[in-house]
Structure formats: structure tokens, C-alpha cells
Amino acid sequence: MAGPTGDTPQRPRRGRGGEGGERSRRGEGGERPRRSEGGDRQPREREETEFVEKLVSINRVAKVVKGGRRFGFAALVVVGDSKGRVGYGSGKAREVPEAIRKATDQARRALIRVPLREGRTLHHDIIGRYGAGEVIMRAAPQGTGIIAGGPMRAIFEALGVQDVVAKSVGTSNPHNMIKATFEALNRSASPRSVASRRGRKVSDVLGRRDQAVEARE
Question: What is the pLDDT of residue 38?
């Protein structure tokens, strides 16, 4: 329909710079498509998945203040790569997920390496003590499994141990049990390290150990 002056109104162009072209580039909602961030996230996700996280305990505490009580949570977490490295950490926060995140970050910063025989068990028997906590750990033949309970089982599963016999003869406090277990694991030594420290051959160290086992039997 012509206007007052007799000119026909012109329709907006839908070409390259018009409304149709802009909408086709931005999509239905008018937003520009974002670039995929999968390439940046893959290394971080791969790094996170190689660790095994075990939640040992969560403790809830309450602080009485004016107007009510404020609750807080303390988490104890064990982290390992199932290949001979393990660590533990504790975190406190007002919410459970934040406490677990803090404990996990602390555990990853405090990883220790423990030598394993054939990648499945300990090299020798160890006794660990921390405060009122005392634990006994013994190497086991193949097929024994993890004979341990509570926090010690979480440590061995995260460490990658498949055969071990362990017993806690002290306090049942998970913090003291874990610290006693790590105190023992820090003193674990392989025959190669013992031989290099004494200036002898590995066969000499293993020969003495076999003789001691035969004499005990």
C-alpha cells in the first residue's frame, strides 16, 4: 500500500548484513555460538580421574551463638593413585562439599611414595605408632586380599595394595589411626634401597631375609 507521498515502503534487507543474516549467525536465541572448551578441560579431567578419593569420616560440630547454633563440618579424606602413592588431608567448612574439597586438596599436596613388592603387597612387616594409635601391618601372599578395617582399608585401597594383613591395637580415632599408618608406611623400605644404603648387593639382603624366615618357621 502506498504512503501519503505515493512511495512504496521498502522492506528491510535479509542479506549478509540484514536481520536474517545476523540471526542465522547467532542462532535461534540471538546469541553467538561459543567455542568448544573440551580441549582445555580434557587434561584437567584426566588428571583428576587418575586419583582415587576415599572419604574416611565426617564430623559435625556446633557452636552456640546468640540466636541459635552454627554448624560446621570436618572431613577426613585419603587420596591415592593405586600405583604406590597415597596421602591424607583434613578440611573444615560450613558445608560438607567445601570441607571435602579442602581435605582433598590437602591430601594431594601431601602425597608420599611407598615401595611395594610386585606392586601388590608390602616388603616387610611394620608397626606404626602415633599418640594412642598403634597399627600392625604384615605382608601377605598373593590371593590374601586386604584384611583390614576402617581407615586402614581406605589407605590400602588408595595405595594400590592387594594383599595385606593389618590390625589396629590402639585407639579407634580415625585421625590417630591414619597418622599411625602413615608413620609406618614412611618407614617402609625396599631391598634395593637397603642394599644401596649398606653398600651391598640386593641378593645379600634377600638372602638374609629368606634365612630369617626359614629360622622362624
Answer: 44
The DSSP-derived string for 61-99 is: EEEEETTEEEEEEEEEEEEE-SSSEEEEEEEEESSHHHH
The model's pTM:
0.69
Q: What is the pLDDT of residues 93-123, one digit of tens each?
A: 999 999 999 999 999 999 999 999 888 899 8
Amino acid at 27: G
Distance, first Cα to last Cα, the chain: 111
Between helix 174-186 and helix 151-159 the angle, nearest 10°, is 40
d(Cα 161, Cα 58) in Å, to the nearest integer?
25
Phi, psi of 8 (to 5 degrees): -85, 130
53, exposed or middle or buried, with CB in 10 Å at 0-12, 13-18, 19+?
Answer: middle
Residue 200 pLDDT = 78
Asked whether the beta carbons of 137 and 125 are under 8 A apart, the reply is: yes
pLDDT tens figures, 192-212 = 888 887 777 777 777 755 545
Q: Write out the three cell numbers for 185.
A: 608406611
CA distances from 217 to 140, 167, 211 (A): 15, 22, 10
Question: What pLDDT was estimated at residue 9?
Answer: 55
Distance CA 109, CA 111 (A): 6
